[in-house]
Amino acid sequence: MPFSPLIQAAAHHWWLVVLRGVLAIAFGVLAWFWPGMTVLVLVMLWGIYALADGIVSLITAFRWRDSGKPLWILILIGLAGIAAGILTFVAPGVTAIVLLMFIAAWAVIVGVLQIVAAIRLRKDIDNEWLMGLAGLASLIFGILMIVSPGAGAIAVVWIISLYAVFFGVLLVMLGLRLKGLRAA
User: Fold this and answer.
1) CA 110 to CA 156: how far, in whole Å?
2) Sign of the alpha-carbon dihedral angle for 89, 92, 96, 101
3) CA nearest 98: which of 137, 165, 35, 106?
4) Is there a contact between 170 and 134 (Cβ–Cβ < 8 Å)?
5) Of residues 108, 107, 112, 109, the one with CA closest to residue 131
6) What is the pLDDT of residues 75-113, one digit of tens each?
């Protein structure tokens, strides 16, 4: 079955999705094993992750083409990640509550955009639910952080790390599925 140019580009650059997943998993594992880290270290670690994810998302957007144009949803995800990362480095002394709101807002935006992308791709690819589920995980995580920002610091770190690992695993699965489309 012939695939659309967008799916062909996605399959060709499958490794970018896997890279995003690996970055998320690495961030989650680091956060899990160092739950007592200071707020400043968490801020910097998360800032590095958000910036790296944003850059990789922008690269992906310009490599995947939709009717010859970069994929706008991934451009927005990339810009959100870069903005969140830069803001984190510019204001490292932010309070834990403000940091949680930055992370929550970013997770909600990324979650909504991932779900929109999955809906758009549902006619072009099987298992698009992986992208949608990654988006739903991000959306739920962001909403929980907004509703309960006063949770204990260790619990917050563990929630963040579990989210990052789950999100990362789903992206790796999606990337490997896209890799499989190259042979099809």
Assistant:
1) 19
2) negative
3) 106
4) yes
5) 112
6) 999 999 999 889 888 877 665 567 778 778 888 999 999
Q: How far is CA 104 from CA 5, 12, 69, 84, in A?
A: 34, 32, 30, 11
Q: How far apart are the first and last CA of the chain?
A: 8
Sequence-separated contacts (24+) of 61-65 with Cβ below 8 Å: 63/9, 63/12, 63/13, 63/16, 64/6, 64/9, 64/10, 64/13, 65/5, 65/6, 65/9
State pTM to two decimals.
0.54
- Each residue of 38-66: b (16+ CB within 10 Å) or e? eeeebbebbbebbbbbbebbbbbbeebeb
Query: Rounded distance, CA 111 to CA 58, Å?
Result: 16
Query: Torsions phi, psi of 148, nearest 5?
Result: -130, 70
Which letter does DSSP use for residue 4 in this model? P
d(CA 19, CA 110) in angstroms, rounded, equals 17
CA pair distance 79, 57, nearest whole angstrom: 8
